[in-house]
Specification:
Radius of gyration: 21 Å
Structural class: alpha+beta
CATH topology of the largest domain: Immunoglobulin-like
Low-confidence stretches: 4-25
CATH architecture of the largest domain: Sandwich
Order of helices and strands: HEEEEEEEEEEEEHH
Mean pLDDT: 77
Strand content: 25-35%
Number of strands: 12
Number of helices: 3
CATH class of the largest domain: Mainly Beta
Shape: globular
Largest sheet: 7 strands, antiparallel
Distance between the termini: 43 Å
Length: 235
């Protein structure tokens, strides 16, 4: 009996050690994520893809495949950011109105930098603009990174020798009820933005598409919903 208990104790400690090692390992990987979206005039939306690079390797380029609801989003156009690298050698994106030729994802884009993204660097990697169907302005939707797994992932970061750098890619849920400021989180900042509107002030980049009852206005019901969410009274 004691030997059995000892074996379970060893297995438990080994499992804890493995989980801790895994968490530390993932913490060292670059993280690519949809950090914000902005609604702009003429039924368009701009998503900003961010990166955090805690690794000690310079990132010399990336290839990104995105999947989304094509009835909601259309005609994506990518714009590279120069805040993370001085310049780039090559840039490509799927032609407007077309999908990737291999059928993986709905949009592809990629860059090879001249100087690369250095260690301990974070910022906006790329911006992509879409046309948005007005019929979906009050629906929740997810834009996801496609093709992140396998021996030859379609979505990846790479070094100077085009060797793939292990990374974590995080999808983003947009048009989320209560996410008034569009940072993909529901928090106190959203309730403050809503209260500014109720008091006659102007909230920067207010998103009526995140209004919970789709009546094209931000009312007290939105503020209550946000406060209930951040206080865990709602899932």
């Amino acid at each position: 009996m004691r030997s059995l208990q000892g074996m379970f104790k060893i297995l438990f400690l080994a499992g804890c050690f493995y989980c801790a090692e895994s968490q530390f390992a993932f913490a060292d990987f670059p993280r690519v994520f949809i950090q914000q979206y902005i609604e702009i005039p003429d039924s368009m939306i701009e998503i900003q893809i961010g990166i955090v690079n805690p690794s000690n390797l310079p990132i010399m380029g990336y290839s990104i495949r995105l999947g989304y609801e094509t009835m909601l989003f259309s005609n994506p156009v990518a714009e590279t950011e120069d805040t993370l690298s001085q310049s780039y050698e090559d840039f490509y994106q799927t032609p407007v109105g077309q999908r990737p030729l291999d059928g993986v994802g709905d949009f592809s884009t990629g860059v090879r930098f001249q100087s690369g993204i250095g260690p301990e660097t974070s910022g906006t990697l790329i911006k992509i603009r879409f046309n948005v169907s007005p019929a979906f302005t009050c629906n929740t939707s997810t834009i996801e990174f496609v093709g992140t797994a396998g021996d030859s992932p379609k979505t990846n970061l790479f070094d100077a020798g085009y060797h793939i750098i292990p990374a974590v890619f995080e999808n983003g849920t947009i048009f989320r009820p209560g996410d008034i400021d569009g940072d993909l989180n529901i928090d106190l900042a959203d309730s403050i933005s809503g209260l500014k509107m109720l008091c006659g002030g102007s909230a920067t980049d207010l998103r009526l598409s995140t209004d919970i009852d789709c009546n094209e206005r931000i009312g007290m019901e939105n503020i209550i919903y946000i406060l209930q969410t951040i206080s865990y009274m709602r899932n």
